[in-house]
Amino acid sequence: QRSSIRRNGHRLPRPPGTLPLAGNAIWFLQPRHKLLSWFSECERKVGFSTFEISVPSLPPGIVINDPANLEHLLKNNDIFIKGDFFKLRSRDLFGHGIINADGELWRIQRKAGLRFFSNSQLKTLVDDVLPVFIKDTQKNLDAAALASTQIDLQKTFLELTTRVMGKVAYDLDMTESMPFSKAFDFASGAIGDRFQNPFWKIKEFFFGNVLRKAVKEVKSFGASIVSAAIQRRTDRQGPTKVSLTGKQSILQANLIDALLDNITDHHIVADAAMNYLSAGRDTTAQSLTWTFYCLIHNPAAAHRVLSEVRERSHCANREPDLSFAAVQPTSSPFTMAVFNESLRLYPPVPIELKECTAETVFPDGTFLPRGTVVMWAPWAMGRSKSIWGDDADTFRPTRWLDISSQQLITKSAFEFPVFNGGPRACLGRKMAEVLAAYVIGSLLWDYEFTDPDGTSVDNLGTPAERRSQNSLTLPMEGGLPVRVRRRNLGQDYCTS
Ligand code: HEM
């Protein structure tokens, strides 16, 4: 079957270094950050040309970098599905949740979720929810500033996104220190390994106990979210309306109610709840971590973000304007450019794959038999010189701004696949964007962050590379320890 993958009647090229029997296994057995670099190196060598990879015991696979091929894949959601290859590896963690579902099971969870991401919900998130939680973040930063101690920004952001998601999605007080959080972290690393190690079943037969315990912890947390919601609905005789700041009914609907209204099987609701939680909190916390990492090493960009906040703010009371209107891309183009640029270099979902359910031909003429696994790496596409030009490795937010209007430009989801595209595009993109614009603006306004080792920008404005940890997403290995200093309530920036 492997030999039937063809382009113009010929076999596809193999990446340099492919071995006769082991194929490309050697790269897949390395830590994930090395695999990411390998994907990028291959893209640099072959450009948009689709190539075949092989790992013993795994189904035939290809890697695509051409945006036209990715468009074909993402738009043909019925042909390219998650499939058994993905599900077999992630079923115990994600169960029947949206991340792991195809067909009707996927459709129903997507429809239920849509209600939760309306514009009015996002406005409430920015205008009412975030101001409450960011105050606690600030208390922790103030304490670190006062004591002149380091603080881990990755942990800080994970705490923030856990609390936000807990409140708005489930009407629960969640924190990053709860056992499910650590368990999920561990499980995500171990499940990520399953996609790289063809011998994962043997490994887990001997050493899988910790993973099994972690999955059990995550599952029981999912079940507890559902039982708490059912209890609330019984007590209040109807869906809850989350109140946060003393105002009544500030959120029209929370996610768990939308899921309970649409799905009768409570086990599936529990899986869906955990899937939405992991899709939302980890990715967003990691994107903020990498963004602040880039900003710390590019002080000029941080300064321009501050100028943008100052321009639209009321300096009379020295408070930045971070209202829902102010955090839209039209009001905060440079802040969003910084966020996009960080996502381009550090995409929270760095590798993706789909399985082909029927014979199909890609726009570049590659013929795929049924069962082929197609991989693409937003990590490698984000660093592609064919897409981004010769300075693809450089952190340069202005590439996202139109030269004359200085407004944000858009890239298609197929060139910039950080949020996926087509019918399965990320549901939470807008939520992540407004949350990021709010957090970046608010924290930069009040604090100056520095690298505790004192290393700053290199000549090109490219931060010294930090590694990501093995995971399904992109946590920064070792967190992001920083030093922090209060800016004195925007005084530095409101002098007029
Ligand atoms: C910077 C932050 C984020 C990034 C980079 C991101 C990226 C992605 C990507 C790449 C996918 C496709 C994954 C796949 O192939 O299965 C996805 C799907 C999804 N994301 Fe996000 N995401 C982010 C934030 C969020 C947030 C805040 C939420 C919700 C609270 C969310 C909810 C979802 C859901 C529900 C899906 C599944 C969509 C489907 O399969 O139909 N995401 N996201």
Descriptive notes:
The chain has 496 residues and is α+β, with helices and mostly antiparallel strands. It has two domains: 1-94 and 350-382, Uridine Diphospho-n-acetylenolpyruvylglucosamine Reductase, domain 2, CATH 3.30.43; 95-349 and 383-493, Cytochrome P450 (Cytochrome p450, Orthogonal Bundle), CATH 1.10.630.10. 49% of the residues lie in helices and 7% in strands. It contains 17 helices and eleven strands. It has helices at 25-28, 32-46, 67-75, 83-94, 103-114, 119-147, 153-170, 179-196, 200-207, 209-236, 255-262, 266-296, 299-311, 333-345, 378-382, 385-388, 429-446, and strands at residues 6-7, 51-53, 61-63, 80-81, 151-152, 352-356, 360-361, 366-368, 373-376, 447-450, 481-486. A five-stranded mixed sheet has the order 2-3-9-6-4, sandwiched between helices. The protein has a three-stranded antiparallel sheet with strand order 1-8-7, with no helix packed on it. The N and C termini lie far apart (71 Å). The model has no long low-confidence stretch (mean pLDDT 91). The structure holds protoporphyrin IX containing FE. Protoporphyrin IX containing FE (HEM) binds next to helix 5, helix 12 and helix 17. Protoporphyrin IX containing FE (HEM) is lined by residues 98-99, 110, 113, 276, 279-280, 283-284, 287, 348-349, 352, 418-420, 424, 426-428, 431-432. Its cofactor is heme. One of its GO terms (molecular function) is monooxygenase activity.
